[in-house]
Amino acid sequence: MTNPLPVRVLPAARVDQARLAAYLAGRSPEAAARAIDVLREAFRRLSRHPALGRPVGNARHELSVRFGGGGYVIQYRVDPDAVIVVRVFHSRERRPRF
């Protein structure tokens, strides 16, 4: 087994996480905390298995993460020395091309 790669979360993805958590926190603080935990666990999985998501071109990937009735989409790329999380969206959100 290879060593896990560090995961770098870009500022835009951090803003996405905060936005998604704030939306949930207005309805259920517990659900917001669980959502963040689910995303962090997905980042850990990507650290160990960078090719886990589906390729979307230009060495970029999307990983779908189930949560509640929907889920989240993590957009990332794999650099030689790190997994770079670029954006995080709710699965039902319209998202820009990656």
Please describe what this structure looks like:
The protein is an alpha+beta fold. It has a single domain (7-90), classed as 2-Layer Sandwich (YaeB-like fold). The protein is 36% helix and 35% strand. The protein has 2 helices and 5 strands; from the N terminus they run E-H-H-E-E-E-E. It has helices at 11-25, 29-48, and strands spanning 7-9, 54-57, 60-67, 70-79, 82-90. It has a 5-stranded mixed β-sheet.
List the helices and strands and how they pair.
Blueprint lengths: L6 E3 L1 H15 L3 H20 L5 E4 L2 E8 L2 E10 L2 E9 L8
Parallel strand pairs: 1-5
Antiparallel strand pairs: 2-3, 3-4, 4-5
Helix pairs in contact: 1-2
Summary tags:
single chain, 98 residues, alpha+beta, YaeB-like fold, 5-stranded mixed beta sheet, 2 helices, globular, RelE/ParE_toxin_dom_sf, Plasmid stabilization system protein ParE, toxin-antitoxin system, TA_system_RelE-like_toxin, RelE/ParE_toxin
